[in-house]
Amino acid sequence: MNGMIRWRPAQDLIPRNFFRKFWDSDFEEVLERMMKSEAWKKFDWTPKVETYSKNGNYVIKADLPGVEAKDIHVELEEGFLTIRGERKMDKEVKEKKGHGREVFYGTFERTLSVPSHLKAEEVKAKYQGGVLEITLPIDEKSLPRKIKVEHVTH
């Protein structure tokens, strides 16, 4: 017989019944009240983004399915780019009796830090197929440059 017992640090640090204490009727009541509150109904959603550099540009893509282009606003200010807007619920969806909802509706705002060496006057934004693509041209003149250090002998 093997006398060794596998060590499971999580079980040693947190007893198995620790989380059961939270799932009593009081907690379920608090959770239910929170879900019905007005604050929860105003839950803002945040679009997912990806950023990368390509062909001398800094590119930001944001997934905004179901948002109309007229409801998207982009602002560049002091090294930050802000995307804000609203995804509105279709009148048809509002009138139907829902059985489940995983899509958030309402306002959103996402602020991203962007490189400081951009040509702000040349920034472009296009929206197609539910994806917002913002192209920020990089000012090559203001990029860091390598400076050769000369060795001086006396």
What does this molecule look like?
The chain has 154 residues and is of the alpha+beta class. It has a four-stranded antiparallel beta sheet, with no helix packed on it. The protein has a three-stranded antiparallel beta sheet with strand order 3-4-5, with no helix packed on it. The protein contains four helices and seven strands. The chain has a domain of 101 residues: Immunoglobulin-like (Sandwich), CATH 2.60.40.790. 17% of the residues lie in helices and 31% in strands.
State the end-to-end distance. Answer: 78 Å
CATH topology (fold) name of the domain at 42-142: Immunoglobulin-like
Task: Please provide the ordered H/E string of secondary-structure elements.
Answer: HHHEEEEHEEE
Tell me the β content. 25-35%
Low-confidence stretches: none
Looking at how many chains there are and whether they match, the oligomeric state comes to single chain
Q: Quick check: average pLDDT? A: 80
User: Tell me, what is the CATH class of the domain at 42-142?
Assistant: Mainly Beta
Q: How many strands, which pairing sense, and closed or not: the largest β-sheet?
A: 4 strands, antiparallel
- Tally of alpha and pi helices: 4
Task: Considering the chains and any ligands shown, give keywords for the structure.
Immunoglobulin-like; 17% helix; four-stranded antiparallel β-sheet; 154 residues; alpha+beta; 4 helices; three-stranded antiparallel β-sheet; 31% strand
